[in-house]
Amino acid sequence: MYRYDSFDQQLVDDRVAQFRGQTERFLAGQLPDDEFRSLRLRNGLYVQRFAPMLRVSIPYGLISSRQMRMLGHIARKYDKNYGHFTTRQNIQYNWPKLETVPDILADLASVQMHAIQTSGNCIRNITTDHLAGVAADELVDPRPYCEITRQWATFHPEFNWLPRKFKIAFCASETDRAATRLHDIGVFIVRNEQGELGYSIYAGGGLGRTPIVAPKIRDFLPEMDLLSYLEAILRVYNRLGRRDNIYKARIKILVKETGPAKFTELVEAEWAKIRDGELKLTRADFDRIAAHFDAHPYVAGSDADTSFDAAVAADSAFAAFVKRNVKGHRVPGYKAVFVSLKAPGVAPGDITAEQMELVAQLADDYSFSEIRSTHDQNLVLAEVRQQDVYAVWKALRAQGLATPNIGLLTDLICCPGLDFCSLANAGSIGVSDEITDAFESMDDLYDIGEMKIKMSGCMNGCGHHTVGHIGILGVDKKGEEWYQVTLGGSAENDATLGDRTGPSFDRAHIVQAVERIIEVYLDQRSSEDETFLQTYRRVGMTPFKTRLYADEAVAA
Amino acid sequence: MTHLIRDQQLVEHDFPLLADDAAPPASGKLIVSLERWRKDAAELRGPGLEVGVRIPNTVNVEDIWAEISDRPLINLEFPGFADGRAYSQARVLRDRYGYRGEVRASGGAVVRDQLHSMARCGINGFELRADQDPQVCLKAFEDFGLAYQPAADGALTVLRRRAS
Ligand code: HEM
Ligand code: SF4
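Predict the joint structure of the above. Result:
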């Protein structure tokens, strides 16, 4: 866990005071609506269909047990007893009252949390791998890099009024678990041929209505130059990004319209003038930031335990959980345990106050008091000794948090859609419920294997539909809810945008369409080991299309 | 009436903007548009006149620096509340060129809630939007006592404070 020092705390406290003043001036009629709107957005506060919505920042998805308890307290005291984990590793509350938001922010500040820059056209939460620090395929722990970037971005005076929102992600592992190239800036931590650490920089990725996989703009950036390079990119974007059309304002449009080569030239020219300035980092800067993170006292010899294997052999339900929800750890004898927030009948990512408290307790008892949130809207207890996994599983299961479906079809991503969002064309939570019902049988799910269904209620793509193996997008047709389907998207190293199947499906037929896609896959795959994505890439769209539109009446 | 804050003090308004089609006075302080400056610089450099230049927020400061570097005042435009382009212009003027004259902000974003960031970027003159209460605005400079990142105000960053 990164621990604040008095400087970090002072800045967050000052921000709470600043926002309290702004809220008071607004309620007293001294601050125009649209201006208060911009200011409250920068403090995580949206106003949605039924109520304000507060998005709390979870830098790179890392939460302490104490913070998790506070999130539970906030759910209970200010909301309807639950919260919603998002695809950017943050948490949202759907029902707070405007007047209470400064109090919520003060409660958050008391546990070193905030909602700063979780919305608005500024630099947003920095995200990374949810297995950072424990993954075996990792070059270095990316979190100190994320934190140093978070501090640079927080209240950056020059970049608080950008053309559009700005998201940065880091990846330091072989497998990209952070959808890094789908961000405005994607930073891959790498070693060059001389063995020096540094970064490959990608810019201009994003989802939304013009989904783009970011092109690389610099092959190798020396480690100490991270912040000056980011500043150069942001300065070019602040100056040249389009402000005439909100749909063309993201940096991805600037990169595309300028051309990646020319854009790179502009960045490099700016960078040349600032690279040796005050933003130059030193080894000592990194060391100091790294020292703010707790060191974990791993117990040597934890892999001598035999109870874990015995429990897997003896209890088939536990074995199923281990197969899907438990991943390896770089330290022998430790495991990363995934807490599924995708139980049947629950909106993906939703969690109650009681469940938060349970997870906090398990973190205290078994996982160095830390929890991570994932961009697939689940949680991870990443530091569990294998001898303790059985106890963790039993406790999670008692609270409906142990659905053994991580990475399977029912581990789907879905935005709030028509149930909460004022921009929605169609409901997504209801469809996700029905899909979960349709694929109720765990045996079927295992047979289908690795499958990412992602669903958004409108083009803005909060549910990442364009990079779902199956993507579902809500569209409005003369006031009715319809759904467009894409196949073959991916947010991993092979980042790809999905292809449209054809005409969209109405509410009554969308779940059936998903079932048919799965049937075609099961029918076409070359062996049980061929995943949906591999099969789709091999056989292409035709067999899917044929089956989906066999019966014309269902689609239009 | 609009108020002027300079170096965190409420001061008498000075350097009024001269309309592009108006004749310059014989003496005094004024601001002209970049376009006008380009056209009439010789005349506007006359004795008795102190002339600042207002630059559009769409120009690259590097392209025009040579033309304006000796001016006592550079006026930046913030046409709308959410248009932050001139923040970068201010930093280039101060950080890159070490400009020492007044950098003045005008327009719809020159309000209580943006003065702190503007000051950090090197703006020291604020032509407050007409609806702004200058006493409330003066408090803006106290919003934060610390800064995470270097900017044109020379504030010692948190990273450097930790080092010492
Ligand atoms: C309910 C209120 C919400 C509203 C009004 C909203 C609004 C938007 C809008 C307008 C965009 C498009 C921005 C653009 O393309 O420039 C967007 C994108 C996005 N939103 Fe939301 N959103 C909401 C909830 C959520 C939730 C709950 C999540 C996470 C589960 C989320 C995650 C995202 C992500 C990941 C993107 C795509 C970013 C990209 O283009 O790279 N949003 N949202
Ligand atoms: S994708 Fe559309 S409907 Fe879904 S949350 Fe985002 S803006 Fe709302």
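Residues 4-163 of chain B form a domain with the TIM Barrel fold (CATH 3.20.20).
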